[in-house]
Amino acid sequence: MTAQPSQAFSTSNCNYHMPSNCLMLTYLQQVITQGDQGDFFYVVEKGSFDVYVNPSGALQPGPDGLGKQVGTIQSGGSFGELALMYGSPRAATIISTEAGCTLWALDRITFRRILMDSTFQRRRLYESFLEEVPILSTLTKYERSKIADALDTQKFPAGTTIIKEGDAGEAFYLLESGEAEAFKSGSQNPVRSYKKGDYFGELALLNDAPRAASVVSKTEVKVATLGKDGFQRLLGPVESIMRRTTYDEGVEAVDPLHQG
Ligand code: CMP
Asked: What's the pTM value of the predicted model, to 2 decimals?
C-alpha cells in the first residue's frame, strides 16, 4: 500500500498536515492504535508522545482501554518501526501530549528500503540470538529491540581474560558463541562455566563493586557487550532475576532461571 501520509491520520481527526510527510498534531491525538496493522514509521521533530500498552494486545473500549503508560517519546525519538519490521500488529498506542507536536511520517516501503537495514541493523543482527537468551525471555520484543540497539560484538581467542577479578565493572556480557569459565583467585578450578546464551559481568554493575571473579575464554568466543549505562537503563525488568542468582564460594550455583 502506498498511502499518503495524510491517510495515516484519517481516523484520528488530524486538523493539519504539510506536504513532504510532515504532520502537525493537536493535543491528545492518537497517532498509532495498538492492535492495528502498521503503515508508517514516525520521527518526532517537536513535542512529545505518550506510549500505552494494553496487555490484551489491542486498544480496548472504556476508560482503562489504553492500558498502562510505559513511556514517553521526545523530540529526536521515533516510533512505529516494530510493526513495519516484523509485520506484527502495532504493539502500543501513541498519543500526542500537547498541541503543535510535529512528526515526520515515512511509509512502509520507504522505511523498509531506506531505514531497516541501516538504522535498525543491530536489531536484525541480534534479534534471533536475543530471543534465545534465557535471562531476556520475560522481556517484550520491544525491550529486546532496545537492548539490541545498544549491543556491541567483541571476539576473543581461547585463553583470553575477558574480565579480571578486582577490576571496575564497565560492561555486561552475553555469550554469543563459544565457551568461557569464571575463576576466583587462588583456585585452578572454574567456579562457573558459560555457554551460548549465558551472561556474566552483571554483579559488579548491580552492586557497584569490583569484579568478583575473572572470566576467561575456553574456546574462541564471541560476546555481545552492553555498557554500564545501557545495562542500568535497559535491564531493569530482569534485575530481580539476576539478583536471585546465587554465587556460593567456589561452588557453581544452580539456578534454573540463569542456566537455560
Ligand atoms: P509499532 O508496534 O509499530 O507501533 C507502536 C510503537 O510504539 C512501536 O512500534 C514502538 O516503536 C513504540 N513503543 C515505544 N515503547 C514501546 C513499548 N514499551 N512497547 C511496545 N512498543 C513501544
From this structure: 0.80
